[in-house]
Specification:
The protein is of the alpha+beta class. It has 5 helices and 25 strands. The protein is rod-shaped, with a radius of gyration of 52 Å.
């Protein structure tokens, strides 16, 4: 038996199917896969972005600071202020002007803001009835004067008759009775003349009275001043007495003597012992906070308000100015200085700065000014101390906001969050 060797039959198609494509073949170069490198690069980018964000936020984080608005030297209360009180401007001479009779207004010659002089005509009432009464009184007075003249003539005739009768009696040409009758007639005419004179005086008094009443129809200014209110119009009825219903005015307007303006303040009774007469003061109006008016204490009114526990103090203004008007709010600083001229001396130009706001940066006196939410570093020049403040003569302006206690991390251009003192 012949053994014959046979080669196995191999299907080449199956071999092709067992072949691995290049996209599926593992990389046998020895390095990590590509996706690992991508992950590493992403992590590095994220770390870089985080570091940049941290650096940006840390470098621009707002710094919380305390701030203060500085004022010019001479503004605000002085360093020698004993105490302060608030009150209002008042007028010692103020009048609501009215007529002394009831009547209808025919003319009003004033308005708010008018400056008037004493005796100036402010308004007129309907005076037709008063004018008629005056004319009647004057006519009666003329009639009485005519009666006096008549009685005087009759008396003169009676006296002449009496003299003739006396001469005839001396010559024996008349009787004593006739002479006595002429003498009696003289006495009678003298009495009638005296009565006529009294009537004439009464008539003249009535004329004066009528003139006074007629003059009441003209409203005049009682003193020099400024009209602060006009209360009535032409055609309205005014009366010196209050009338019900609200249809009758009691005045034409209000006049204030601006030279009599002063300040009335309420001082806490616990501190009233520090206030003395003629004590120097400084008055600052709420309307003009940068204007200090020299003043002095007139008197302490000896009466307290039990509800407010205060005592009223009158303060006179040493300077008169048209800007000061009644009822303005005012703050009065009572000064301890005995020499009022020294207390009111002109201040040195400059800005008052709290000492704690001043720091040394790069060997120079420096302050930080806050503007638009950022700190600005300023180099300043200092002058003499003013009380507890440092006087800045250059580098800072009144009204600017400064950092009162600059922190070491505060730099020029730093963002800040302000908390005003």
């Amino acid at each position: 038996m012949n053994l014959t060797s046979k080669e196995p039959n191999i299907d080449t198609g199956l071999l092709k199917e067992l072949r691995i494509d290049g996209a599926q073949r593992e990389d046998h170069d020895g390095g990590p896969p590509k996706w690992v490198w991508g992950l590493v690069v992403g992590l590095v980018l994220l770390a870089s972005l985080g570091a940049a964000a941290w650096w940006y936020l840390a470098g621009n984080k707002p710094v919380a600071v305390q701030t203060l608005s500085v004022r010019a030297n001479g503004q605000g209360p002085s360093a020698d202020v004993v105490l302060q009180a608030t009150g209002y401007v008042t007028a010692r001479r103020s009048a609501t002007v009215s007529a002394q009779i009831t009547g209808t207004l025919t003319e009003v010659l004033i308005d708010e803001g008018f400056r008037v002089r004493k005796g100036q005509v402010l308004a007129r009432l309907d005076d037709s009835g008063l004018k008629a009464s005056l004319a009647a009184a004057e006519a009666q007075a003329r009639s009485a004067l005519a009666g006096v003249a008549q009685q005087r003539a009759q008396l003169a005739q009676a006296e002449a008759d009496a003299r003739r009768q006396a001469e005839l009696l001396a010559q024996g040409m008349t009787t004593r009775q006739s002479q006595e009758q002429t003498a009696t007639a003289v006495k009678a005419h003298a009495a009638q003349l005296d009565a006529a004179q009294r009537q004439a005086e009464a008539a003249q008094a009535q004329v004066v009275q009528a003139k006074v009443a007629f003059d009441y129809a003209t409203v005049r200014a009682p003193f020099d001043g400024i009209v602060t209110a006009r209360a009535a119009q032409v055609g309205e009825i005014i009366s010196p007495l209050s009338a019900g219903g609200g249809f009758t005015r009691t005045g034409v307007g209000t006049i204030v003597d601006m030279d009599s303006l002063e300040v009335g303040v309420d001082v806490n009774e616990a501190y009233i012992a520090q206030v003395k007469a003629n004590m120097p003061c400084e008055a600052v109006l709420d309307a003009y906070p940068d204007w200090k008016i020299p003043a002095h204490v007139v008197t302490v009114i000896p009466s307290a308000d039990r509800g407010k526990a205060t005592v009223k103090v009158r303060v006179a203004l040493d300077q008169k100015d048209e800007r000061v008007v009644p009822d303005m709010g005012v703050r009065v600083s009572f000064l301890a200085a005995k020499d009022k001229a020294k207390a009111q001396a002109a201040p040195v130009p400059g800005v008052l700065l709290p000492p704690e706001a001043l720091v040394q940066r790069e060997g120079a006196n420096t302050v930080f000014v806050v503007a638009d939410g950022k700190a600005q570093q300023r180099t300043v020049k200092l002058g003499a101390d003013v009380g507890k403040f440092r006087l800045v003569t250059e580098g800072l302006k009144a009204g600017e906001v400064v950092v009162t206690t600059p922190q070491p991390e505060l730099k020029n251009g730093s963002n800040v969050v302000m908390n005003k003192d």
